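Hello again, I could really use a second opinion on something today. My current little project is about how a certain protein chain folds up. You're getting the sequence in one-letter code plus the fold written as tokens. Here's the protein in full, and shout if anything looks odd to you:
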Amino acid sequence: MRTLLLDVQGKAAPCCSKSHIAYRFFLPRPGGRLLLDFAYGPNNLEDPVKAKALIEESLRTYVEEELQDQAKARWESYLPLKNLITVSVDGPGGHRGAAHRHDPEQHLFLSRNEASPGLEHGELRQGMWEVTLSLHAILTDWCAYSLQIWQEEEVAR
């Protein structure tokens, strides 16, 4: 049996880049599996004019001045530019890991004996948990996201 613990949707704008959104939820009973479904989109910035402007701005910031003309001439090699939102999990006992992936759709889990890469397996303690969305880069005008979290009971074998 699955129990829905959290179901949220939101939108982020470019001004939200380099920020975090934390969602707290209560795990009503210990054990089982914690399932997280996270998705965001659009994934890529499709506007070539805006992409070129962002790339040129970054080149001015991060590339030595004498190499900027050469880098600007091949600005298209930096495409596609992507939005990036990642997921971190904290439980009552502390940090349980981070799924810092570029995948715009992620199905993650934690349980006593196994967990998705980047997350730590171990006892699932009853109490307050927190999932943090890190908005590393929002390049499109809007980026919508959704997060659902369930607790699944352990199946006796």
In short: The helical segments are 48-62, 68-73. The chain has two domains: 2-44+82-152, 48-78. The chain has a mean pLDDT of 95.
